[in-house]
Here is the input.
Amino acid sequence: MAIAVRNGHTAVVTAAPSLGGRFRFLASFNSSGTPYTLSEGAPGLTLAGCPAGPLGHHVPAKYAPGLTMFWEGFVTDLRGCIPLDVRASPGSHPVRVTIAATDGGCGS
Here is the structure.
């Protein structure tokens, strides 16, 4: 999945507690061709946007201005809509978003 974080800001993303560990973020990608397991993942992640400032060299201005883009893998045995909690810091109030585990129209 793609996650955009405003430059100079941080996002803490976790699976909703109701999922009971059945959704995990992948810290890296294996090259063995074997399926991922839930034990390989992490329950959450913290992403830091690039420092606020001018675009880097050779980065077109039309590419997500003011945002740092992250491509994050995940593993789950769930189907349908998956709730995730996003916070500006570990102690802040969460904003609930949903993604589709399979082809579907529930992403937000």
About this structure: The chain has a mean pLDDT of 83. The two ends are 12 Å apart (CA to CA). Residues 30 and 36 are 8 Å apart (CA to CA).
